[in-house]
Amino acid sequence: MQHILYLHGFLSSPKSIKAQATKAYFEQHHSNVTLHIPELSNFPSKVEDQLISLIENTPALLENGLKLIGSSMGGYLSTFLLEKFGGKAVLINPAVRPYELLQGFIGAHENPYSKEKFEIVESDMGVIQALEAASIKTPGNYKVLLQTEDETLDYRLAAEKYAQSHLVIEEGGDHSFVGYENHLPAIAEFLLK
Questions:
Q1: 64: helix, coil or strand?
Q2: Nearest alpha carbon to residue 103 among 85, 80, 82, 128
Q3: Average pLDDT over residues 118-147
Q4: What is the structure's pLDDT at 134?
Q5: Are 55 and 61 spatial neighbours (Cβ–Cβ below 8 Å)?
Q6: How far is CA 137 from the centre of its chain?
Q7: Which domains are seen in the chain, by residue range?
Q8: 135: closest CA among 118, 160, 169?
Q9: What sign has the CA pseudo-torsion 26, 8, 52, 67?
């Protein structure tokens, strides 16, 4: 049995279109894979502990090396975990410096999926920055999917950070990554081979 950890982005959930498409694909084509899609805390100060305890309490995740799929903020978190534990990751429009972007999100929010109300505060920026992987030790262990018309993140930051990785840059698209489901066979092949 193989295990893959899928990490959704900020203001997202396991119910997101990409998470559900990933789940459906692996159920249909890779019945030997268990896909873990945790509901990440909306509070940045809780996410690191949540992820570390998930990995410590699910030893199967590390059995054949950690395998991650991370979207947006989930891509940032996947990079943190991969540099800590080793393994392989596929990142979709990953956030590179989310602590800069989230400056504009300080204040009250409601998760559109869970309806949980929460607040982003100034001190969260340091918490998020502490999870930054300063360098990529094994760039070949990353496959990074980027679309140039991402309205939320500048794709060039990720193209630069992951320049030595397996980069797929598509013209157009948006932050949700248009046509994501078409990439699932290649994502599975990269993670499972």
A1: coil
A2: 128
A3: 96
A4: 83
A5: yes
A6: 18
A7: 2-192 (3.40.50.1820)
A8: 160
A9: positive
